[in-house]
UniProtKB/TrEMBL annotation:
Keywords: Signal
Name of this protein: Uncharacterized protein
Protein species of origin: Streptomyces exfoliatus
Signal peptide limits: 1-29
Amino acid sequence: MAHVRAALAIATVLAVGVTPAVLGGTATAAVPPAAGTATTSTTGTVVQEGGPLVVTSGEEGAVTTRITVTLPTGHTGPVKARLLLPKPTWQWPDGAEGYDPVTPTCAVNGGAFSSCPWNIPGNEVVFPATEASTTVTYDIRVDADSRAAVMGTLTATFEVTDETGAVIGSGPVVFRFVSGTVEASRRTTVLARDKAGVLWQYPSSGRDDKPLKARQRIGGGWDIYTSITALGWRTAAGQGDLVARDKAGVLWHYEGSGNPAAPFKPRVRVGGGWNTYTAITANAGGLVARDQEGVLWKYTRPFAEPDGGEVSTDLFWPRQRMGHGWNAYNVIEGQGYDDDAVARDASGVLWSYRMARDSSTGGAYSPRGRVGGGWNVYKSLTWAQNLNGRGQDDLLAVDKNGRLWLYESSSWNYGQLPSSIRKEIGWGWDIYDEIL
């Protein structure tokens, strides 16, 4: 999705090719020299120490470049500096428009770093004013979101002016944004319960060649549950909730803690009677559940009251009937961050269901679409949400030999479908009886 921003934080830092005026004469066009070399004229010199700054966009953290300005002799009083930014020419990832991908902080003459304000109409990053001296140093520290990598190489014009507004120093500053590790808050984590009742987590890595990191133990005692289901978006940063049904039919809520080492808070009782359902799965932050008669029910989380009042203290609104005939399926898997679902019938055909966008349907699915046959080779299917951080949910499948397969999703009429291409990403997963 193309998106043109009027301004960006210092990640969008980069050059509009502003031509400085020559003191005592008419403004003339000039071709800036390569970064890392001095710009010499009656306006002084500007050097980006070490050349272009390589910004690894993601978890790798902030990097800093220093700009050394040597001013012409005879200048006194305060001087101001700004970084003139280029007009964006790249395409943001779908759904990423409207955010600031870079967090810049600035320092002058080795002082403390502070946030650099930027002027939206002028496409510029503004530095704190300082007193003129023969040499002034400006440091720019850049921390970039992983999505900033699409900006590539950007060239900005660094400009210093005196108290009259006359340009007394100007030169290029270059930034090269490259892909790094997608942030943990934008990747998911796969949970798996072994046959001894121990719950394990596999944080996603954000890498295509090895999507899952080594497993980490969450804790034991999870064999008291007959069903465990994710609620909403679950991340490798320890965010996201679970619900679990015990053998007596009581549903328990585990709220996400935000701590990857201990991702869930102590459980809270939701209510009893949930053993009437033969399948429970996720649905856009809530649940869908199939009863013994094959009727599907939807449970929506009350993020806000319908009339705009206070948020409900209940975990779910009263259930809504979505349809019948769901006993035809031996697997029903909903997406925790979307309304869509897939279901496998007894002959191994996988079907897709997209939530109807027409409010008159009362929250039912649109007519199903056929994904394909042969899916009975798998003993389990689960939506793993987003392993690589690129915005699409991923379907995981474990075959009868314990091999783990990844089906990355493709967009489908405002929904998502597993692709026709699978990739093996693990083995030995037959030790688990629950994967989510």
